[in-house]
Structures are given as structure tokens and as C-alpha cells.
């Protein structure tokens, strides 16, 4: 940047020649292309299934997805009143995308150096674009020595430094600027826009990676011991996977994978805070708890069978995650309102400090422990309340109502210990009673959802 400033000062002190200005712009574009290539090198992995044998890691690929990137950009620039709807949209897109494309461990940015490099890239590109914007200056002169016609009409003047011929005005220096024509400034502005886009891509990749990593670890935890990874054939392997949440004793600690996720989040947060400012950290972690909450409920479909002790283990997981997220998420400062009334306007209410909680996951497990009958009654009451009061019900802190598919998974899990557990069809009476109960509960669920 110092070199560009020195050249800009020199070009602003001699008769204008657009060819020299264009040379500076070309060098800026070349530097941007090198930084862009460096980013792709950081976020590329080996993939035999893709052309050329390489592919972008999931977070980088999502950062280039038009729908996800559009929402992420709006989140970066939006006001507080628009944030909630954008967060919901982003969560919906990420859950849908990760359901279609299964995440793998090698898709995550696990190397601390890469997190530092992406943060450095963001800071560098952000600083560079800010400094380049200050050099923007349009001059009325049109001389361009790179074109024959311009050379023919160019005045034959010596390159005497004009600054040396002007009288000094105290200690006030002349503003630093890069002289450009109306035509060449288009390329200059385009280069700055590209640099700003690369800066956003770097910060958005970090924003997505912590979310993709959380979804991946949660799905690992709920899929069971083998995590769906390739292994040697074993006729009992699938059954053992279904029994991961069939426990014989009350659990006393959270799942190892959830503890691993906690350590990953703490490590990520520490590295992030070392390199980035509060606003950037807030953008990366804001509403992460809501995504994890949705991911937990969505991933319950991977549980083959679960009993009450298994649900207690998941409750411990939820509590551990919730407490850890409170230490990681950078919340917005509380708004200061000068109004004397107790009511707040929409902007102030929307900018209230973020509540870090996992209400849907906690509700899902509470309803499971209460049984299928109470679950159906709770679902009907909740839908009736939402029908009457709308989004005001959310202030009670119980989260959004469950969808039909989520309630169906919950009902099936209530009977899963008898239908898919260790006894299974061997305990014929219990098995048949559970099967009849499941069919009846699913029928009642359809009626509840239809009435709602």
C-alpha cells in the first residue's frame, strides 16, 4: 500500500498520463487475484469425485451458493429489525443443504492456522479497500500515452514535479489521491468491489464453518457409535447403532462427541477473538444457539431407539452445550431507550440482547419423557396458542412449534425401545402393544395437525 501511495503522490504531481494510472490499477487487480488464489488454496481439499480431483470445503462451497450468500450478505448489512427473519432463513437453508449433502470431518476447517489465515485475509482486504477508496480522484485530463492518438496530441512538457513549484501552505499537506478519468475509474471501482467481496467471503466462510461444524458433530452424536463411517461388515453393527441411546443406568456425564464439540467451539472462539474485532465475532457467533437447537431436533431422526435413560443423556448434552454457548456467543450490547413508557418500538425490541438457549431441544426431550399421550395434548395446546396469539407465544421461551415430521419422529421414539430395542419381537406382547400404540398415536397426530 505504501508503494501505491508513493506512486499516487508522484502521478498527482506531474502532467496526467492515464497509462501510468492504469498500470497501478492493473497491479491492484493482480494482487487481488493472488489473494483470491490464496483463499482457494486454503479452502480446497482432495476429492476424487470432482473434476480435477479437488473441491472446495463445505463452508467455502456454501459461501459461493447464491441463496446462502445473499442471506449472509443481508445479515452482515441489515438492521436489527430485519435480523430475526434473516436468521430463520439462513438456518432453514443450512439445515436443508446439510440434509441433502452429508457433512464429513475433512470438510471442516480444523486447522487453527487456517482460521487465523482467513481472519488475516479479511482484515487485510478490508483495510486495503478502505485505503484505496481514499485515493479515488477523477481528473478532467484525458492524456493516455498508451494510445497513438493520445501521444500525437499530448503537449510536449517536461515532467517537473508540480508540488515543488507550488508555495508551501504551512504544514498542511496536499491530500493523497490517484488521478483517474471517468473511464478508468470504472476499473478502479471494480477492483475495490472485488476486494470487498473477498473480505466478506473470508468472514462469511468462518461464519458458515462454525455452523457446519456444529451440525456435523451433532449428527455424529445422534447417529451413534459408528457415525455411518465405512467399516468391516458386521451383522450386529446396525443393531448396535440403534441401541446407542438404550441405556441401562442413569447417565452422569454428557456424550463424548458433545464434549468434543464444546472443546472445538471454545478453541474456535479463542482463535477468533485473537484476530477479529467484536463486530466480526458477533457476526460469526450470533444466533449460533438457534441453529444448534434446530440441528438437534432435526437430527433426532438418526436415533434408532431411545429409552428414558437415553433421553436423560441427551438432556445432559443440551445443558452442557447451552452453558458453553453462553461463554462463546458475543451478544449485542443492551439498547438504551429514552422512552418513559414500558413498550419498546420494533427496532429497540429487535436489538435486545440475544437469549442463548436451546428451547426446542429441551421441549422435545421433556415431551418424550412425558409419553406419547401427553405429547399429543401438548402439541394440540401449543398449536391452539399459536393460532390465537401468533408469535407472542415465543416470548415464553419454548421455541417454535414442532412440524409434523418432527412430531412423528418424537412419537416413533416414544415406542422405539419396545419396537427396536434389545428385546424387540422376542417380547411379543410388549412388541405388539407398542406397535398398536404407535399406529394409534400417529393417527391421532394426523388429526391434531389437520385440525390445527
Automatic annotation (TrEMBL):
- Reply yes or no: does the keyword Membrane apply: no
Q: Which GO terms describe its cellular component?
A: exocyst
Q: Which GO terms describe its biological process?
A: Golgi to plasma membrane transport; protein targeting to membrane; protein transport; vesicle tethering involved in exocytosis
Q: Does the keyword Heme apply?
A: no
Q: Write the record's keywords in alphabetical order, separated by commas.
A: Exocytosis, Protein transport, Transport
Query: Entry's InterPro entries?
Result: Sec8/EXOC4 (IPR039682)
Q: Which PANTHER family match?
A: EXOCYST COMPLEX COMPONENT 4
Family, per the entry?
A: Belongs to the SEC8 family.
What function does this protein fulfil?
Component of the exocyst complex involved in the docking of exocytic vesicles with fusion sites on the plasma membrane.
This one is known as Exocyst complex component Sec8
- Organism, as annotated: Trichophyton soudanense CBS 452.61
Amino acid at each position: 500500500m505504501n508503494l501505491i501511495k508513493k506512486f499516487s503522490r508522484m502521478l498527482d504531481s506531474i502532467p496526467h498520463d492515464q497509462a501510468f494510472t492504469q498500470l497501478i490499477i492493473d497491479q491492484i487487480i493482480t494482487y487481488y487475484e493472488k489473494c483470491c488464489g490464496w483463499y482457494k488454496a486454503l479452502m480446497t481439499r482432495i476429492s476424487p469425485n470432482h473434476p480435477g480431483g479437488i473441491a472446495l470445503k463445505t463452508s467455502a462451497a456454501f459461501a459461493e451458493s447464491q441463496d446462502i450468500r445473499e442471506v449472509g450478505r443481508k445479515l452482515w448489512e441489515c438492521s436489527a429489525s430485519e435480523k430475526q427473519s434473516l436468521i430463520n432463513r439462513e438456518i432453514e437453508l443450512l439445515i436443508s443443504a446439510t440434509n441433502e449433502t452429508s457433512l464429513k470431518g475433512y470438510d471442516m476447517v480444523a486447522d487453527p492456522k487456517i482460521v487465523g489465515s482467513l481472519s488475516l485475509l479479511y482484515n487485510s482486504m478490508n483495510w486495503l479497500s478502505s485505503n484505496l477508496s481514499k485515493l479515488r480522484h477523477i481528473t478532467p485530463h484525458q492524456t493516455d500515452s498508451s494510445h497513438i492518438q493520445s501521444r500525437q496530441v499530448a503537449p510536449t512538457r517536461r515532467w517537473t514535479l508540480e508540488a515543488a513549484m507550488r508555495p508551501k501552505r504551512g504544514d498542511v499537506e496536499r491530500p493523497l489521491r490517484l488521478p483517474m478519468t471517468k473511464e478508468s475509474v470504472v476499473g478502479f471501482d471494480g477492483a475495490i468491489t472485488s476486494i470487498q467481496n473477498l473480505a466478506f467471503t473470508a468472514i462469511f466462510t468462518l461464519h458458515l464453518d462454525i455452523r457446519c461444524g456444529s451440525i456435523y458433530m451433532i449428527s455424529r452424536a445422534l447417529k451413534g457409535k459408528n457415525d455411518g463411517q465405512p467399516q468391516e461388515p458386521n451383522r450386529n453393527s446396525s443393531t448396535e447403532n440403534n441401541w446407542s441411546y438404550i441405556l441401562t443406568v442413569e447417565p452422569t456425564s454428557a456424550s463424548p462427541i458433545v464434549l468434543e464439540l464444546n472443546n472445538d467451539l471454545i478453541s474456535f472462539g479463542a482463535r477468533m477473538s485473537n484476530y477479529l474485532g467484536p463486530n466480526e465475532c458477533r457476526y460469526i457467533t450470533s444466533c449460533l444457539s438457534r441453529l444448534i437447537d434446530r440441528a438437534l431436533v432435526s437430527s433426532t431422526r438418526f436415533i434408532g431407539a431411545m429409552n428414558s435413560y437415553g433421553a436423560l443423556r441427551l438432556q445432559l448434552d443440551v445443558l452442557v452445550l447451552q452453558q458453553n454457548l453462553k461463554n462463546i456467543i458475543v451478544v449485542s450490547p443492551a439498547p438504551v431507550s429514552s422512552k418513559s413508557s414500558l413498550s419498546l418500538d420494533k427496532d429497540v425490541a429487535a436489538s435486545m440482547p440475544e437469549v442463548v438457549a436451546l428451547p426446542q431441544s429441551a421441549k422435545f426431550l421433556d415431551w418424550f419423557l412425558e409419553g406419547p399421550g401427553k405429547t399429543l395434548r401438548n402439541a394440540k395446546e401449543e398449536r391452539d396458542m399459536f393460532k390465537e396469539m401468533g408469535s407472542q407465544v415465543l416470548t415464553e421461551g419454548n421455541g417454535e412449534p414442532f412440524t409434523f415430521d418432527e412430531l412423528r419422529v418424537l412419537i416413533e421414539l416414544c415406542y422405539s425401545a419396545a419396537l427396536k430395542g434389545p428385546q424387540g419381537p422376542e417380547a411379543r406382547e410388549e412388541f405388539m402393544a407398542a406397535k398398536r400404540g404407535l399406529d394409534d398415536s400417529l393417527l391421532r397426530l394426523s388429526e391434531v395437525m389437520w385440525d390445527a
